[in-house]
């Protein structure tokens, strides 16, 4: 098994510094981290990867058996750590990867020094008193939307592949694959992401954890961030002054600073 | 991607159909359509010019046999011209080297045809 | 003329913006609506004051598209500065929806800082209806494809023996490499006991592919099985098959096959093989000392195309460690790297370099060779190998 190739693993930054493993969320790939990587790589050794089915991962490695639960993705994270012999890892999981990080850390707590959960949600569906933010009908609509965007996706890719002469800083080989996801896999990933319920796993977390949330996030509302913080004993909650679900894009300096501060703290 | 082109020439000395490229299960129906479209007259000779043929698999062989059947059922003749080496090898392999009448070129095939095409 | 020109001159930029045939929307980087044209307001049924500074672009979307916006649209726009042709729906003030195509670009200041997002929105009612049709067709095609693949693999299994029988003193191995999961291939092989110590085997290739070829394959297999029991030798078995296939022809295009059929009898410490070829690529013999030779069966004609087809019979002796390999033309017509086709002589030369002593090893080596051709193998390939066990090699 070659996790390095399967997950298109990239290692950059300071060789002897603590390791920060960045796990991207639903809808994109490791390029989503590129605005925070310059700051973080000055102080840490950064390990980036693509989930199977995203970016430049080995699509052939994808199977519905392994990847219809978040456990399969958590398994991949642990395999990357084992293959690269990563120790005392600060694992940063964005969006759905926050719960993938929780599952990985619960399986092998000794592997991880700290967890950073960026815009996490343990359960997107409303359930009794719990407000995940979405109803089942909402999620079904998302899945439909992915279906009907099937053609839109290919169109969306066209300018990306052609490159962007006006913005040379984002032109280049890596961008050709930015956020490129196999639509069929994306549908399954969406289902896995939005129908998972990992609320019960939060109480099992023993690794020191920071919850980073945005001041306004349509996908993971603030009360959900608060819920995660409440359930993980000893966790810290940081609210970034940022809008949307991807603060590493909308407020990169602030996000990098918050990750660095927690990761670097004794 | 394989490619195949078929060109039909209605020459004074009789029809010549040129097959070029790869004759396989994908292109064989087109090859055969071209021969059927000629509707040869009795006494005429149809020449299949295979000079440009790069590849021919079992479906292609099938099409060549079918072309001969079509010509014969119309009481016309059929000759192969410019059979490439690889196909000549195959024809030997499958015991059809004497089954088809073959000539080096289409012009030679037409020159060798005894009956006057103008008569039909 | 004059009036037309003056009308054109009076066509102000402001009017063009407000009443363009598409919706225009400018938002701050956080999505807050800063400017919107009359066309889009009209489509939405909102008052300008309800939206400006109060609502974000994502608020105009139904929830599914809002998630798509947050997880795909906004990140891609951030990274690339533009995104185009995305199919979304807008929710009107009255709750109804409108299919649109959305393109956005980020406007940056002179120093490169992102300032605002400009979005153009096209009414896509017609196109979406068309896309729904395409989508439905695609889903149907996907289901159909799964069904066809299942059918093909099931049918294929019925055309090949589930496993080869044990032949005393011999090692036997077979391999089947389908070129396509969607279509039933035209290759077949079998090995079965006749009377006494005699065994019969065959391997062949039916012209064409798919269901029609499968019918011929099936007819061929059962005819060969029956004829092998009744006829005195391989050449007369192939004659019977030729007659059976000719009787079954429909239309002008002949459905024929090429095949090698043989009998195997124990003889001394080895075996005697009698085989006949009907237009099939020559069998390969790999001797115990490593020398490879092609069995000359030229003159045998393909089966099912000609009324009085001739078949050529040859005899050979296999000694301990000798292997007889039958193969179909997927192997010898494979494109190797580049465009050159692999032929029988290439196979013989390759086999000459092999160090194999059994049928199993030979088939394993050839299947590796096939793998090395990768996409070059565009036809099905069947392999059947028979070898005489070396003395003292009593492995079952």
From TrEMBL, chain A:
Domain of life: Bacteria
Gene3D superfamilies: alpha/beta hydrolase (3.40.50.1820)
Stretches that traverse the bilayer: none
MF terms (GO), sorted A to Z: catalytic activity
Domain (AB hydrolase-1): residue spans on this chain: 20-258
Family membership: Belongs to the AB hydrolase superfamily.
Name under which the protein is recorded: Sigma-B regulation protein RsbQ
Annotated source species: Lentzea fradiae
TrEMBL record, chain B:
Coiled coil: none
InterPro entries: MlaB-like_STAS, STAS_dom, STAS_dom_sf
Residue span(s) of domain STAS: 16-113
One Pfam entry name: STAS_2
CDD domains: STAS_anti-anti-sigma_factors
Molecular-function GO terms, alphabetical: anti-sigma factor antagonist activity
PANTHER family the UniProt entry points to: ANTI-SIGMA FACTOR ANTAGONIST TM_1081-RELATED, ANTI-SIGMA FACTOR ANTAGONIST TM_1081-RELATED-RELATED
Name this protein carries in UniProt: Anti-anti-sigma factor
Species of provenance: Lentzea albida
TrEMBL record, chain C:
Span of domain PAS: 9-61
Tree of life domain: Bacteria
Keywords: Coiled coil, Hydrolase
PROSITE patterns found in the cross-reference section: PAS
SUPFAM superfamilies xref list: PP2C-like, PYP-like sensor domain (PAS domain)
InterPro entries xrefs: Bact_Sigma-Reg (IPR052016), PAS (IPR000014), PAS-like_dom_sf (IPR035965), PPM-type-like_dom_sf (IPR036457), PPM-type_phosphatase-like_dom (IPR001932)
Gene3D superfamilies for the chain: PAS domain, PPM-type phosphatase domain
Pfam families linked: PAS_9 (PF13426), SpoIIE (PF07228)
Coiled coil: 127-158
An example molecular function term from Gene Ontology annotations: phosphatase activity
Secretion signal, residue range per the UniProt entry: none
Annotated NCBIfam families: sensory_box (TIGR00229)
Name of the protein in question: PAS domain S-box-containing protein
Phylogenetic classification of the source organism: Bacteria, Bacillati, Actinomycetota, Actinomycetes, Pseudonocardiales
